[in-house]
Each structure stands twice: as structure tokens, then as C-alpha cells.
């Protein structure tokens, strides 16, 4: 049962990793919606078409979170939730100790998780020109791909 058990365990870990990545993606989308809502509420008196577009986004956002009330307890709870989300590693969900040095929007628990997530994050990172961290990532990404296959 040696190799078969190993393959089953490997498949389980791959499934769990994929599930965790999906959850982290959902968390990032939620954070983006929260940021949109904050900017929309702050700029409600916007000018021109931008104001109308933001208003539409605000209505869409509010319809998605209509279950929340506006009392101070729920605001405090949402602030705490946002703080906890901001401190989670986007790759594995553990407590984050560092953030992406390019965009400062994504948090990681270790350099291993940061390197592992770079393949996906590089498309959304606002870092221009692909500095040193991109060059450091390429050889490691190649090694990770060999291990997965």
C-alpha cells in the first residue's frame, strides 16, 4: 500500500491547497469590494461619469452585503474582520508576517509562500518593470513546477 497511499495523500494535499487558494482568492475579492465601497462612500459627491459608475458599484456592493446592519457593533466587528483578513497569508491562510514589496496589498507568512504565490500574483501586482523579486522568483518557480509534475 506504500505508493498508492502516497499518491492518495498527495492528491488530498493538492486538493486542499487548491481549495485554500480559492478561498484566498475570494478573500482578495472581498477586500477589493470593501476598498471600492470605502472609496465610493468617501467620494459620493464625485463629478461626471465617474461618480455615476461609483454609485452603481456602491449599489452592487450594498446589495451583496445587505445582511449587515449599520450599528456600531457591526462596524467594529467588520473592522476586526478586515484586520484579521489583512493579517492572513494569501497562499496558505496562516498569520502573515510580511507583505508584497511591490504593491503592499498582499500578505504572506513566509518567503516560501510569497515565491509560491508569485506565479498568480505577478499578474495583479502593480510593481512596475519586474524588479529584483521577479528575478529571484524565476528559478524557484521552475523548481516548484518540477516537483509538482
TrEMBL record:
InterPro entries per the UniProt record, alphabetical: TF_DEAF-1, Znf_MYND
Domain of life: Eukaryota
Main location: nucleus
Pfam families named in the record: zf-MYND
Annotated localization: Nucleus
Residue span(s) of domain MYND-type: 89-125
Entry annotated with the keyword Protease: no
Entry keywords, A to Z: DNA-binding, Metal-binding, Nucleus, Transcription, Transcription regulation, Zinc, Zinc-finger
SUPFAM superfamilies recorded: HIT/MYND zinc finger-like (SSF144232)
Molecular function terms, GO-annotated: DNA binding; DNA-binding transcription factor activity, RNA polymerase II-specific; zinc ion binding
A GO cellular component entry from the record: nucleus
Protein known as: Deformed epidermal autoregulatory factor 1 homolog
Species of the source: Scomber scombrus (Atlantic mackerel)
Lineage: Eukaryota, Metazoa, Chordata, Craniata, Vertebrata
Amino acid at each position: 500500500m506504500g505508493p498508492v497511499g502516497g499518491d492518495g495523500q498527495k492528491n488530498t494535499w493538492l486538493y486542499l491547497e487548491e481549495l485554500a487558494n480559492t478561498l484566498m482568492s475570494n478573500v482578495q475579492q472581498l477586500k477589493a469590494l470593501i476598498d471600492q465601497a470605502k472609496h465610493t462612500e468617501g467620494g459620493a459627491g464625485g463629478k461626471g461619469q465617474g461618480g455615476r459608475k461609483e454609485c452603481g458599484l456602491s449599489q452592487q456592493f450594498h446589495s451583496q452585503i445587505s445582511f449587515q446592519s449599520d450599528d456600531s457593533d457591526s462596524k467594529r466587528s467588520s473592522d476586526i474582520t478586515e484586520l484579521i483578513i489583512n493579517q492572513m497569508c494569501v497562499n496558505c491562510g496562516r498569520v502573515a508576517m510580511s507583505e508584497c514589496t511591490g504593491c503592499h496589498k498582499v500578505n504572506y507568512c513566509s518567503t516560501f509562500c510569497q515565491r509560491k504565490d508569485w506565479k498568480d500574483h505577478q499578474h495583479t501586482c502593480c510593481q512596475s518593470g519586474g524588479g529584483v523579486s521577479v528575478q529571484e522568483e524565476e528559478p524557484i518557480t521552475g523548481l516548484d513546477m518540477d516537483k509538482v509534475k
